[in-house]
């Protein structure tokens, strides 16, 4: 398996630049790497300009150059509106999409160069990658990872942690917000390790010095006036520093922490980061500081050597931890992962049985936790307006992976709008609400 690599040529005005940024943000979040050269890229996207004749010529030349140097080219941007002209000159282009149609570009990239999927670490479920609507965006803050979890192949594919300097990340975040994004989803393989590789180097944003560090990033993002959600955080001691920002409402009171297991022997076999931390104690402390904290996590059952007792320890952990949202996988080997060499594989039927038992426990807990919110007032963000009403998300719900809030009849609402609702009903996943007032 090889990480898919994209070459990107961006021409045109500042608006086209924002589009380029959005396309790149999405592709990076899905695990594509960017290639600085045509030769190393598996495919090249050319974001064109068609404003004046000179720009049209420049764009057509750029497409020609990418075709000559690489061969696989997708065209987007203003000139994409004039597809016939492009096809007449360059019939070999793989796909053409128009201006500000970044969802379509990313779709065309998937078609010709599918993203890699690692079930244990991907944020986006395997059922398919829905494209990020315009009102929320993934913000990738680093590439690669310094850990070597035995079930994971990310470090061998993408290498060690490589953080983007904070000024660059903040610049991208600011442009996304200026382009209408209402929620930023901070992603990476290990968000809490942000900046370690750069020794927390000082960088500049808006003329101000800022350290390339997890807490400083969370604080700076929290000043942009949009929802900021943190994914892929490990329970290191310094994570405690962002909880006050959540309590103050600067960033969303939401932590996505992939625990993967609760038994120390298995965590060691998995080579998990922060495996020695007392997770239950930390959770208690976090909830003490920020009572509406939502905790999401993922787990693996049936990891090689997992005994019935160890599995039961995991169920006990679920009861104690009272996590809000949980995903669970039955272990299956990922090609090239070190864990494949571990002895005592768990039989498939046992794995499936454990998965079902795990989900039964967690579904009850999730349902109870949602039930406790019925009758309360909450701020939600509208994701979609359909015939029956509006589909929204609360602060506790990340797109794609968590639940939704349905507001029957509220067809007057707009996508990307924040509204206050009163929660009427909940099941183990979703909630139903009416507008407040
Ligand atoms: S922390 Fe572990 S699971 Fe996550 S990317 Fe790194 S090696 Fe993979």
TrEMBL record:
Q: Where does [4Fe-4S] cluster 1 bind?
A: 13, 49, 78
One GO biological process term? tRNA modification
Q: Which residues cross the membrane?
A: none
Catalytically driven reaction(s): L-aspartate(89)-[ribosomal protein uS12]-hydrogen + (sulfur carrier)-SH + AH2 + 2 S-adenosyl-L-methionine = 3-methylsulfanyl-L-aspartate(89)-[ribosomal protein uS12]-hydrogen + (sulfur carrier)-H + 5'-deoxyadenosine + L-methionine + A + S-adenosyl-L-homocysteine + 2 H(+)
Q: Where is the MTTase N-terminal domain?
A: 4-114
Homology family:
Belongs to the methylthiotransferase family. RimO subfamily.
Write down what this protein is called: Ribosomal protein uS12 methylthiotransferase RimO
Which organism is this entry from?
Answer: Methylomagnum ishizawai
């Amino acid at each position: 398996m090889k990480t898919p690599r994209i070459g990107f040529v961006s021409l045109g005005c500042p608006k086209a630049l924002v589009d380029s940024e959005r396309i790149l943000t999405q592709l990076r979040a899905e695990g594509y790497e960017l290639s600085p050269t045509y030769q190393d890229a598996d495919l090249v996207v050319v974001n064109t300009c068609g404003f004046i004749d000179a720009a049209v010529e420049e764009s057509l030349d750029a497409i020609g150059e990418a075709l000559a140097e690489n061969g696989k080219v997708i065209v987007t941007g203003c000139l994409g509106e004039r597809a016939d002209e492009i096809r007449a000159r360059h019939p070999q282009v793989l796909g053409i999409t128009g201006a500000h149609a970044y969802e379509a570009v990313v779709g065309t990239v998937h078609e010709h160069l599918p993203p890699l999927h690692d079930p244990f670490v991907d944020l986006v479920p395997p059922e398919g990658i829905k494209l990020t609507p315009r009102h929320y965006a993934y913000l990738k803050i680093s590439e690669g990872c310094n850990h070597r979890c035995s079930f994971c192949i990310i470090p061998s594919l993408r290498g060690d942690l490589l953080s983007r300097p904070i000024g660059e990340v903040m610049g991208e975040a600011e442009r996304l917000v200026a382009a209408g994004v209402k929620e930023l989803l901070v992603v990476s393989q290990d968000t809490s390790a942000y900046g370690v590789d750069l020794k927390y180097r000082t960088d500049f944003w808006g003329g101000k010095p800022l350290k390339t560090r997890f807490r400083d990033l969370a604080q700076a993002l929290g000043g942009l006036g949009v929802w900021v959600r943190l994914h892929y955080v490990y329970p290191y001691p310094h994570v405690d520093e962002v909880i006050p920002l959540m309590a103050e409402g600067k960033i969303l009171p939401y932590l996505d922490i992939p625990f993967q297991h609760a038994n120390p022997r298995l965590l060691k076999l998995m080579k998990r980061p922060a495996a020695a931390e007392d997770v239950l104690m930390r959770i208690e402390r976090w909830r003490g500081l920020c009572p509406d904290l939502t905790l999401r996590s993922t787990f693996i059952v049936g990891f090689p050597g997992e005994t019935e007792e160890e599995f039961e320890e995991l169920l006990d952990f679920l009861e104690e931890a009272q996590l809000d949202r949980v995903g669970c996988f039955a272990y299956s080997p990922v090609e090239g992962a070190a864990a494949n060499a571990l002895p005592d594989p768990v039989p498939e039927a046992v794995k499936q049985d454990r998965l079902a038992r795990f989900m039964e426990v967690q579904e009850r807990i999730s349902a109870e936790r949602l039930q406790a919110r019925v009758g309360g007032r909450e701020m939600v963000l509208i994701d979609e307006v359909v015939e029956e009403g509006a589909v929204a998300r609360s602060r506790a719900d990340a797109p794609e992976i968590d639940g939704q809030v349905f507001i029957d009849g509220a067809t007057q609402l707009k996508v990307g709008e924040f509204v206050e609702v009163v929660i009427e009903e909940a099941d183990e996943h979703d909630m139903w609400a009416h507008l407040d007032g």
